[in-house]
């Protein structure tokens, strides 16, 4: 768990230390008290304070600014300069600098940039750029794996730092097709759905169809989100998808699909409600 001290919280919120102490003493800004009586602030404390409109008209410093690099990154965040942020995140991902990437993610949340915009305009282009860099031979395959896994790990850490609605809209399931090797996109889908207010059944990569009917019966999801980013064998993928649709139809599930794999897979089936092209689509529907 990342904790900020009083001085760091003051820098982020753009106020002095005494103001932070006054807000926390009044119960406006939540904090954790250490055994020695010192205040420590989680990211969720700061985001909740901002989201509740306690400080609506003041410029937020998205990350504590002690270095010139921090100041530059904070400016990119506040201006939504995704081009520079993509290049920065790619460099840090290749070198497995999880904390630096997480600082950017946290800064964007503090700056009230919607989670779906972070995924649509920062993470997705970064993944594409990493793939393109590898295809051009500018990085090795293991460096490509370093970068992808670092982003996935950082997204998982971010998911544990954001407040989610206590009241759930219902149960949904997120899955890849059986031979899908990557689940970073599905992890972002999971995060958006949880942020939207759903309880998510997340199956990850290489999901077999065995006992799928049993899962639908026991867990009773109302929606099924299917991601496909790569199709190795179209015949097998189509048969698998058709089977999922037939099972889902018996349980009255609504299916939403996404990913470049559905450029090839025929998804014009009865239970399929829509093809989603962005994380904003996922959040909005």
What does this 3D model show about the protein?
The protein is of the alpha/beta class. Helix content is 52%, strand content 12%. It folds into 3 domains: 3-51, Orthogonal Bundle (Multidrug-efflux Transporter Regulator, Chain: A, Domain 2), CATH 1.10.1660; 68-159, Orthogonal Bundle (Methyltransferase, Methionine Synthase (B12-binding Domains), Chain A, domain 1); 170-284, Rossmann fold, CATH 3.40.50.280. It has helices spanning 6-13, 17-25, 43-51, 68-78, 82-94, 98-110, 115-135, 141-159, 184-196, 212-219, 234-250, 279-284, and strands at residues 3-4, 32-33, 39-42, 170-176, 198-202, 223-227, 254-258, 272-276. The radius of gyration is 21 Å and the shape is globular. The relative contact order is 0.09.
The name of the CATH superfamily of the largest domain reads Cobalamin-binding domain
Strand order of the largest sheet: 5-4-6-7-8
**CATH fold-level assignment of the largest domain:** Rossmann fold
For the record, the CATH class of the largest domain is Alpha Beta
How many individual β-strands? 8
Shape: globular
Please write the string of helix (H) and strand (E) elements: EHHEEHHHHHHEHEHEHEEH
Helix content: 40-55%
CATH architectural label of the largest domain: 3-Layer(aba) Sandwich
* Cα end-to-end separation: 32 Å
**Whole-number average pLDDT?**
89
